[in-house]
Amino acid sequence: MSIKAVIGDYKIFLEKIFSNLKSAGFEIGEFKELDHIGYRVENLERYYELKKSLAEFCEKISDKEFAGRPVLVCKLKEPLNYGEFKIEGIEVLAPKEDNKFEEGLEHAEFVTKTTLPEFLEKHKNITFNLVAYDRKENPELVLEFENCAVKFHEQSLLRVRGM
Question: Among 34, 41, 61, 107, which is most buried by a count of CB atoms within 10 Å?
Answer without folding.
Answer: 34
